[in-house]
Design brief:
Elements: E1 3-4, H1 5-16, E2 20-22, H2 23-30, H3 37-46, E3 50-62, H4 64-72, H5 75-85, E4 89-91, H6 101-114, E5 117-122, E6 125-130, H7 137-147, H8 160-168, E7 172-184, E8 192-194, H9 199-204, E9 210-212, H10 231-245, E10 249-250, E11 256-258, H11 259-262, H12 294-306, H13 321-325, E12 327-329, H14 334-343, E13 349-358, E14 370-379, H15 385-399, E15 404-411, E16 414-424, E17 428-438, H16 440-446, E18 452-458, H17 459-467, H18 480-485
Helix pairs in contact: 10-17, 12-16
């Protein structure tokens, strides 16, 4: 039975390696990926020229934390060395000089279990005290494994118990790898099989020893899975292109906002339920501050308390600067819109922001704690509700949505307020946006004396309908199999 040129090359390599070799050695000799050895070996075994034996083993890789410990030593080794250099004792708080905060409790736990370290209270101070000798076997096992690391790394450099400990501590990872061992049984005939007749074969006469492989004209070509952008990202780019074509300018703002820009500047009372801890993510770390001029802060304060110069009575409470300073992950891109209005106080203004917002919702088919929101504003003399509904209807039409309905709504910063719903073929009507005209209590402190229409769209919900997805979480899948199954790739 004849063999192809690729099969003949594998036979020649196998003979050169002594008639027996594993897949990695053959791949190295032939300078091809090891994955290409498996199908060739199966073909040759079917023709009776070779025997194969597959083996599955574990390959171990050192993690980032493992490399950190290789460089500096295991936490218990560093603690033992530190205590030894200090006469055998040290205050617990001093262990942070050689250990990361998350390593201290683990190192002390090891010390107590092994009897090497004890924690004692002496004269009001809590001390770590040496009680025995440190066994460096685990650290040495990690070092031996690091030298054996790679596609053929073996576990013989460490005992099963040591490997288990290293994996549990996050210093080592394990994965199963299949290897193939190949043995030459008999040599094929000299004539090889070629997929095509070339001009060189005709010139040098090698065509006489070549058997042309039959060509099946009915065979389907191979499926090529070419790289492309994620469908959800493509949808977001299409949304931006539509808005650009409608004359909008894109704006952006920070993810971490003060409550002032996220709530107060939008005339949302400081005791409003949406400002409770369970409705937004509080940030610990940044210094509480407001990046706004004092005149704007005073104007917002007056508006909240008394209505200021708007003719409103305000919310009638004592506004707190300390609350307004608190940093949060922004819950709405409307914070970007109000920042934009403060910077662009002369009409016309026509901008949008398409970016991430964060809310501690219960995750389900329609809700995520991190999602994309599209916020838009149009400000000019003579703008009214008809312009709002017309703009949103045209935007929906260009995106290809036919079933859309508007209903009255309520938002603290718009009046009148309008909610819009689009129809999902399986989930039914889905709320996708809130909109309206900014109230004078929002515009007056900013120095705006012309009407502004605004809207915020949960763009992921529109993407669900456009891409035929029933669960909003699927918009972020990286499973190529599912993406191809949906026909997206």
């Amino acid at each position: 039975m004849s063999v192809s040129q690729s099969e003949a090359r594998l036979i020649d390599s196998l003979k050169k390696l002594g008639g027996k070799a594993d897949g990695a050695s053959l791949a190295s000799d032939l300078q091809v990926p090891e994955s290409s050895i498996f199908p060739l070996a199966n073909l040759l075994e079917g023709k009776g020229y070779i025997k194969t034996r597959e083996e599955t083993g574990e390959v171990y890789s050192i993690t980032e934390e493992g490399h950190y410990c290789l460089e500096r030593g295991l936490p218990e080794a560093r603690m033992f060395k530190f205590l030894s250099s200090g006469g055998g004792t040290a205050p617990l708080k001093d262990l942070s000089q050689v250990l990361k905060p998350q390593e201290i409790s683990a190192a002390l736990g090891w010390g107590r279990r092994s009897g090497v370290i004890a924690v004692e209270k002496r004269g009001g101070a809590i001390l770590a005290v040496l009680k025995g000798e440190y066994d460096a076997a685990l650290g040495e096992a990690l070092r031996r494994l690091s030298s054996a690391e790679g596609p053929r790394g073996k576990g013989g450099a460490a005992s099963p118990d040591q490997i288990k400990q290293l994996i549990e501590r996050g210093l080592l990872t394990s994965r199963s790898v299949k290897t193939i061992n190949i043995e030459l049984v008999k040599e094929p005939p000299t004539a090889t099989e070629s997929a095509k007749l070339t001009s060189d074969m005709l010139k040098n006469g090698s065509w006489k020893s070549i058997r042309l492989r039959p060509y099946d004209v009915t065979a389907s070509p191979p499926v090529l899975s070419v790289g492309k952008k994620h469908p959800y990202l493509e949808f977001l780019e299409e949304v931006k292109e539509i808005l650009f074509s409608m004359g909008f300018e894109e704006t952006s703002g920070p993810y971490v906002e003060s409550e002032f820009w996220n709530f107060d500047a939008l005339y949302q009372a400081q005791d409003h339920p949406a400002r409770a801890v369970h409705d937004n993510f509080r940030i610990i770390g940044p210094d509480p501050r407001i990046d706004a001029p004092a005149s704007l802060i005073r104007a917002v304060k007056r508006t909240h308390e008394t209505g200021g110069d708007t003719g409103s009575k305000g919310w009638r409470y004592s506004w707190s600067l300390d609350i307004a300073k608190q940093p949060v992950l922004r819950t709405q891109t409307t914070a970007v819109s109000v920042r934009t209005l403060f910077q662009k106080r002369k009409p016309p203004v026509k901008t949008f922001c398409l970016s991430k917002v964060f809310r501690p919702d219960a995750i389900d088919s329609r809700h995520m704690i991190e999602f994309d929101q599209l916020d838009g504003i149009i400000g000019d003399r003579g703008i009214n509700v008809r312009h709002l509904i017309g703009t949103l209807s045209e935007f929906a039409r260009q995106l290809g949505f036919k079933d859309i309905k508007f209903t009255p709504g309520y938002f603290p910063f718009t009046e009148p307020s309008i909610e819009a719903y689009v129809k999902h073929p399986k989930l039914g009507w889905i709320e996708c946006l809130g909109s309206g005209l900014f109230r004078p209590e929002v515009l007056a402190p900013l120095g705006i004396d012309f009407p502004v229409i605004a809207w915020g769209i949960g763009i992921g919900r529109l993407a669900m309908i456009r891409l035929g997805v029933d669960d909003i979480r699927e918009l972020h899948t990286m499973d190529l199999g599912r993406l191809r199954e949906w026909g997206w790739l």
